[in-house]
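Consider a concrete sample entry:
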Amino acid sequence: MAKPPVDADPEKFIIGRGVYDNLQTATPVFENGVFRLAPTPMPLWTMVIYNIAFAAFCFGFHWMLKYHTHGEAGPWAVYGAPIGIGLFTCMFFTAVVYIAFAKANRLGPWLIYDTKAGRIELPREREVFERKEIVHLQYITTKRLDWGGVVSNQRLSELNLITCRQGVRKRWPLLRSIFNVRAFDRMLKPLIEHTDLPVVRVEDEWLGWNVSERPYSRTADNRRSPCRSAKRI
């Protein structure tokens, strides 16, 4: 795979920091003129259903070993392996999901936008911005520009907020996902319906480094924006 161009714009590629997973720990909420990217409540029923599915699979494994190996499988294989694999899978899955959602709920919302006051808060960053300081939300799916000096073909997705304050343009990471298709579509639908925040979609090629940038919703007029050529950090 070819290396990225030396003059590539870092803002057109994912930040590539933090944990990427497929857990939907955030949910969009719009109430009384306030939009939030809030933590999803603990998905207890989802955890129960998945654990039942894991247990059913391991029981099927046990049944196959017991009745279709013609007595060649010993007690350890017939009982020990299915039970051990089942317990490990259920406990590991439950622990990962519980820890992820508990952490998300402990840290609180990623973003709060009071549409009446025109103020956007990033509680996890302890930052507050006026609406005029917001360039757009960036819905980006690309490879990482520099993964510790290793060229990687893994495409990941991020939802970032781009701000411009006192001539300094900065990206603030909100959400991350291992999905590279429709990663945040559900999250952005109510935001687009109820707020005036512009969203820009950024994607790269599967096997190359060319990047496309297009409006995903309303778009700021970058030709008039004082941050078009601002210092970026």
